[in-house]
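For the sake of clarity, the format in which proteins appear in this thesis is described at this point. Each number in the token line that follows is a code from a learned vocabulary of backbone shapes. One such record is shown here in full, so that the layout can be seen directly:
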Amino acid sequence: MTAIRPALYAAWFFLTMALYGILGMPIAALSRSGALWVMKGWCSAQRLGLRLLCGVRTEVRGLENLPEGGCLIAMKHQSTYDTLAPFTFLPDPAFTPKEELRRAPIFGYYVQRAGMIFLDREGGAKTMRNLMTKAKAAIAANRQVIIFPEGTRQAVGAEPDYKPGVAGIYSAMKAPCVPVALNTGCAWPGSRFPSKPARVIFEILPPIPAGRPRAEFMQQLETTIETATARLVQEAAV
């Protein structure tokens, strides 16, 4: 059964992507909200497929910690699922995907239409200025701008690697930063599809108010996320 689950879910993943992607194109073409609606539907289908085919249950805690209006969300990153599940519990998320995803079949069309903020990782200072401008606009429009402060996926138990750029973004946004801890790597590690039942938890933690000094912000962010993540990893077993 362990070998069958990834194959079943892979079929579900790509079949639903094709169905939602093709059938939803007329809706996505009408407006950004239409594209977001289709993406939310597809991501909800992934949450359902994980539960039915892999025994992976998804729990979201701390929704009461989301502030009114726009905010910056700093999320731990362990799995591909981290880029999907937030569409099922955040009102209007704005991810910061790498530029290459713009050219991805089907998915690239939707992330463009839904107003994601693309990052050219070779763009240097120009990329950062573009990110700041678009992130400010998204927050002003009451969206939730999601960043991964470690930059890339980290294995469960890996040493934290928080990049200083997150402090610059936080300072420029002049908005609260909401830390999010998770344990997704226990169920869906790296780019491999899930192979065993698990309890996936996203925990939205109390926001860090705007205006904290950079060093204080970085220490609070890392301590808050890592402490909660370690606890959630212990809860992953079904």
The two ends are 16 Å apart (CA to CA).
